[in-house]
Fold:
Amino acid sequence: MATTPAARRGRGGAEADPAPLPDPKAAREWLATMQLIRRFEERAGELYAKAKIGGFLHLAIGEEATIVGAARALRDSDYLISTYRSHGHAIARGTPPQAVMAELFGKEGGCSRGRGGSMHMFDLERRFMGGYGIVGGNLPIAAGFGLSADLLRTDDATLCMFGDGASNQGTFGETMNLAALWRLPVVFMVTNNQFGMGTALARHSAVTDLQVKGEGFGVPGVECDGMDVADTYRVCCEALKRAREERQPVLVEAITYRFRGHSMADPEEYRTREQVAEWRKRDPIALWAARLADEGVLDEDAVRRLDEEAVAQVDEAVAFADSSPFPAPESLYDDVYVLGGQLQGWYSVDERGPEPHRGEAERDMDADQIPAREIYDRHASGPHEGTEERPADEAQDAGERTHDGERGG
Amino acid sequence: MAVVRYREALNQALREELTRDERVFLMGEDIGVFNGAYKVTAGLLEEFGEARVRDTPISENTIVGMGVGAAMTGTRPVVELMTINFSLLAMDQIVNHAAHIRYMFGGQVAVPMVVRMPQGAGHQLGPTHSHSFEALYLHVPGLLVAVPSTPADAKGLLKSAIRDDNPVIFIEHEYLYGQRGDVPDDEDHLVPFGKAAVRREGDDVTIVGISRMALTATRAADVLDEQHHVSAEVIDPRTLRPLDLDTILASVRKTNRCVIVEEGWPHGGVGANLAALVQEQAFDWLDAPVGRVTGADVPMPYSKPLEQIAFPHEPQVVDAALATLRDV
Structure:
């Protein structure tokens, strides 16, 4: 069990066999993207405390190398699918941080038009095929992408990321079996951040060496150092090559750690400060910056400038999210169905009153005819940053109220 | 026009759509080599090959989920689940994923998938293979729900379902598989969703029958006519999402009475929902409370006589219709 960063297994350890450096441009871009994700997540945490962001907020601070190393191993035409901790995955895939932040704000300019929120980012154009709120729910869907690639005879591969907690779901075994049986071009990456929500790996999985959990289903496993972007990249490239060329699905276990709580509503009573401090010594961004300095690719000033650029990008993202409008009230019924052809609308009577409405007719309503318009207006006009701070203990209270309903890996 | 069985009509629909659109493929448990638990897919593996007619392991949630993923990325899966009770294993993929993906991702993708499954009592399959769950799926925005009761509708609705860009829960009936009826030969015989069929015209009471209960309602209407001189109008909604409430309301405004017949459970059932809609939209036309005839509020028993009294037959429907007349 990898409860400390030193307890590594498998391929012999990246320390003994450092992954090769990419070209300097890529090396710099990997660092910049990891910094951008870090700064984005830090700001999101601050804005959550200020009640600019609702719901649950799961930050990936500490997991940046896992995300960027994996995403960079993909071709543009490949599919990436992840979990409810997916802001970084969208950003790494190229989704503008503005659209990710606007989604967190519940705005029309969000990458899911404000319908999904933190757990449900999506960007079809960049083949980021979604964050999913149900633990293990994305695995069968990833296999479905592989099945399409097979049926349509493309050489697109799919990378499916999920947490250690998801490896206990029924869909894990079912999907491993089907992917291997049908030889689907899918790489499964279990992001082992050591905890399924607040339950430590050894307390939730009888087999803690997660890379072997696919072997009985015909999916070979391999491990990467999820704190080392180059090692993650190398291992994912090899796995994707096998998936694409040999139609052999592979399970990659990325050993990593989240430095922050499971969500913002996490008092972190299940781990010690010392353990977190130990893992922080292998901060993926600091590790990569140090290696690039050692190898003469970037000096400290350059690293600092990249970080300043990341902060500026996040500033822009927040400004965009602030200025983006909330989805219009008459858009409430948009995109429940694909309309057209035999389906022009649908008959429903709901909380908006006893008069039946038919989906598309909502668009023709005058704005002041919208039922519950006052409620919409009240919520669309606030809260404003700085005027309505979320009390520090409120997030924790929310967590205690909802722990039963929130699971994770 | 030819007389064929319901299962053959479904088979024709699948064959025609597989031929028409190469993005269409089938997957499910024992649909290939075994030809399907109810032989709906008979011969299709031989005709279309293993890539497009795929036998799956017994992994309902995952095969539906793979259908979701495949549908999101350019193909048109038709997933068969062996019985509707097994669809409960796939509820996460059906509700949290298939139904919600388009909405929660801001309309960027669609899920053009059909999930077929049979339901219904009468074959002594006991409490895990005999239920009627259309109400569960009717509950969920984002899904379309079809409940065909005739071979022609089975074929025409399935073809429409496969061509639709929304996820469709297509509910067949085990009793109906062997029933015969006229089916158009036309390869473009489509029955659109959201258009109810008036099975029999009448003036005194409207009887709405769901799935097999459309047949039961029609037979009950014959009894009402012959033995009680009551003229019943029988409506088969054919799809529950979208629902052709207009046709039902027009009938109720004519007859001033309404009885809803379903095989499923009473609480939160299709009849409960329809009764609410009818009284909200046609209260002033009603001369009696809306009547319901439903399956018994129990898990389905195995023993034949018990099972037979646990779902509606003509006499209960006749009684319910007469009760709406007595209330005047």
About this structure: The beta strands of chain A are 79-81, 158-163, 186-192, 195-196, 199-200, 221-225, 250-255, 348-350, 353-357. The longest strand of chain A covers residues 186-192. The two ends of chain A are 15 Å apart (CA to CA). Residues 24-49 of chain A form the longest helix (26 residues).
